[in-house]
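User: Can you recover a sequence for this backbone? Please restate the input before giving your answer.

Assistant: Of course. Working from this structure:
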C-alpha cells in the first residue's frame, strides 16, 4: 500500500508543472493585447488649424463606432481574464496538456487586436463582425475546455472542491461564447443589433455574480426562516 502511494507521488511530481508561470504568461499577453487595441484609435492629423474648433466635435463623433468596438473588446477580454484567474484559484498545478491548452487559448487572445481593427475599419460589413465574434467565441470555448480538462475526475484540483461550484463555473464560462454565436446569427439580419447583443456578456457575469453572492443567500435565509416558523 505504501509503495503504491510512493509511486503515485513520484508520478505526480514528474508530470506536474508549476501553474504560476502560466498565470504570469497569461497576465502578460492580456496586458499587451488590451494595450495594443487603443493604438487603433487615432485622431485625424490633417485638420486645418482654423477649422479645428468647429470640426473637432464632428471628428470625435466619427470615432464613436471605433470607441464602441474598443470598449466591447476591452471589457470582454477583462471578463475572460477574470474567468481564467478564477479557474487558477482552484487549479493546484498544471501538466503538459493544460499548458498547450493555455498556449492555444493565448494564441486566439493575441488575435483580438487584428479582428478588432478589422471591425473598426469596416463597421458596416458582416464579414468583420463574423471574424471578430468567432474569435471571441473560440476564446470562450477554449476557456471552457481548459476548465473541464482541469476539473474532470478532479484531475488538477482538490477532491474536496464542490461539484456544484464546478458545474456553475462551467455554465458561466459557456455563457459568453454562446452569446457570441447568437450574435453571429443575428448579424445576417442586423449588424447593429449583433453588436448590441455583445453587451450581454458583461451584464450576464455581473448579474450572475450578484445573484450568487447576494440574492441567493437571502432567498435561502428566507426559506429557512419560513421553514422554521412552519415547524413551530
Amino acid at each position: 500500500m505504501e509503495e503504491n502511494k510512493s509511486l503515485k507521488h513520484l508520478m505526480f511530481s514528474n508530470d506536474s508543472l508549476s501553474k504560476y508561470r502560466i498565470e504570469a504568461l497569461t497576465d502578460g499577453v492580456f496586458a499587451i493585447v488590451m494595450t495594443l487595441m487603443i493604438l487603433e484609435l487615432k485622431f485625424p492629423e490633417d485638420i486645418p488649424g482654423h477649422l479645428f474648433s468647429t470640426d473637432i466635435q464632428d471628428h470625435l463623433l466619427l470615432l464613436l463606432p471605433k470607441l464602441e468596438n474598443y470598449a466591447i473588446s476591452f471589457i470582454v477580454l477583462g471578463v475572460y481574464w477574470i474567468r481564467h484567474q478564477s479557474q487558477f484559484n482552484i487549479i493546484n498545478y498544471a501538466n503538459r496538456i493544460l499548458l498547450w491548452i493555455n498556449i492555444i487559448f493565448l494564441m486566439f487572445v493575441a488575435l483580438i487586436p487584428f479582428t478588432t481593427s478589422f471591425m473598426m475599419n469596416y463597421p458596416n460589413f458582416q464579414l468583420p463582425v463574423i471574424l471578430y465574434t468567432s474569435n471571441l467565441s473560440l476564446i470562450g470555448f477554449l476557456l471552457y475546455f481548459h476548465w473541464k480538462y482541469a476539473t474532470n475526475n478532479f484531475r488538477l484540483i482538490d477532491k474536496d472542491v464542490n461539484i456544484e461550484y464546478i458545474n456553475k463555473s462551467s455554465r458561466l464560462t459557456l455563457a459568453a461564447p454562446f452569446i457570441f454565436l447568437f450574435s453571429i446569427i443575428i448579424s445576417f439580419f442586423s449588424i447593429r443589433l449583433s453588436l448590441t447583443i455583445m453587451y450581454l456578456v458583461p451584464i450576464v457575469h455581473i448579474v450572475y455574480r450578484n445573484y450568487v453572492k447576494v440574492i441567493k443567500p437571502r432567498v435561502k435565509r428566507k426559506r429557512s426562516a419560513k421553514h422554521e416558523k412552519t415547524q413551530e
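That completes the design. The chain has one domain: 2-43+65-231.
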